[in-house]
Design a protein that fits this description.
Rossmann fold, seven-stranded mixed beta sheet, about 25% helix, metal-binding
Length: about 375
């Protein structure tokens, strides 16, 4: 099967939309999905900084959504014509997967970031027969079609605009899941969200839906305006005595803080802004050592890393869709669509902060 896909051949090159070949259809437990739209996530773009850790050339993209066109084996639980949102890969068999923590799968890095399932390597090539890295996050959805494990696909109502739902599988899932799952934020509780990108704004929407008092911290006035529209108190990251301002706005200190920036300064500011027993969650990967200031974790304060919002995608994605339909999680306001052919423009706009969440339309 031949179809178009955006191939990244090296960390220095631009994406090139070219013909690729799928040399075999879905095996048992797999589905073939005609991609309607795929979000562009910072993790896709971070491949350029990964110093060869993620294999190239590859077709990236891991916020895909579309329509099932072929199933492999009798036990996928899905059928042709089903609309599905795709999420991250996991083995389904390790202790964490069986304990409803698939984001902490023993094989998460290998399956999603560093080569995927080795049996898929020869099944996906470029037009000349050159191997492309096996499925990125189980998807490789910057393409017209994606071959994915069926358990990574969550059925969606066919009346919904499936081309917009892909970002619910990673970026929006991560921010909202941190609020709903990792923190279990309740009405009247307080949370500071540092960084008003896609993940941070999803956290703001989820916190507002939870009835929390939310402070959004960023240096971009346009992003702060969006956060305010979604129910947060906006606060410029360059404010003098940022921890003091957050404590003032949260009646003595935030019970929760979510950092999406990986900035050591902001992380320490967030810790100082917590009330006793407060919890700081980190979702961005730290690229340097994190020096903590003396006393940062005194009085029951704690810090943890949160992967994929501690989510079971099959539970959280339908919840987010329901909130969206009720007008309480307006993620579609953050999306700008681009034809797949314009993927490099989408990347430039994302890097420049001109768009919160690009979504690529292979058929648009």
């Amino acid at each position: 099967m031949r179809f178009g896909a955006a191939v990244l051949r090296s960390s220095e090159s631009r994406f090139a939309v070219e013909e690729v070949i799928l040399n075999a259809g879905p095996a048992d437990g797999e589905i073939l999905v005609k991609i309607a739209g795929c979000g562009m996530c910072r993790t896709d773009l971070a491949v350029r900084r990964s110093a060869g850790r993620s294999p190239l050339p590859a077709v990236l993209g891991h916020e895909g959504a579309g329509v099932v066109v072929e199933t492999g084996g009798p036990h996928t639980g899905l059928g042709n014509g089903d609309h599905v949102v795709l999420s991250f890969d996991s083995c389904g068999q390790c202790r964490n997967c069986m304990g409803a923590a698939p984001a902490y799968c023993d094989s998460f890095a290998a399956l999603n970031l560093f080569g995927g399932r080795k049996e898929n390597a020869a099944r996906f090539t470029d037009a000349a027969g050159g191997e492309l890295a096996p499925r990125w996050f189980g998807q490789s959805a910057f393409a017209e079609y994606a071959l994915v494990p069926a358990r990574n696909a969550i059925r969606a109502d066919p009346s919904l605009p499936i081309e917009l739902l892909g970002p619910l599988g990673c970026g929006f899932l991560t921010g909202a899941g941190a609020v709903f799952n990792s923190f279990a934020v309740g009405p009247g509780e307080t949370i500071a969200v540092l960084g008003a990108g896609a993940v941070g704004l999803a956290a703001v929407m989820a916190a507002t839906a939870s009835g929390a008092v939310t402070v959004a911290v960023d240096r971009n006035p346009e992003r702060l305006a969006i956060a305010e529209r979604f129910g947060a108190i906006p606060l410029d990251a360059s404010s003098t005595d940022l921890p003091g301002r957050i404590r003032q706005l949260t009646d003595g200190g935030a019970q929760y803080a979510l950092d999406t920036t990986a900035s050591a300064r902001l992380i320490n500011d967030a810790l100082r802004a917590l009330r006793p027993t407060g919890h700081l969650g980190l979702v961005a990967r730290l690229r340097n050592a994190l020096p903590l200031e003396p006393g940062a974790l005194d009085r029951g304060r704690r810090i943890s890393h949160i992967c994929e919002g501690d989510a079971v995608p099959g539970l959280l994605i339908p919840r987010l869709i329901g909130l969206w339909q009720a007008g309480r999680f307006p993620f579609d306001e953050l999306i700008r669509t681009y034809p797949l052919a314009d993927i490099n423009e989408a990347e430039r706009d994302c890097d420049a902060g001109r768009v919160v969440k690009p979504v690529l339309l292979p058929w648009g």
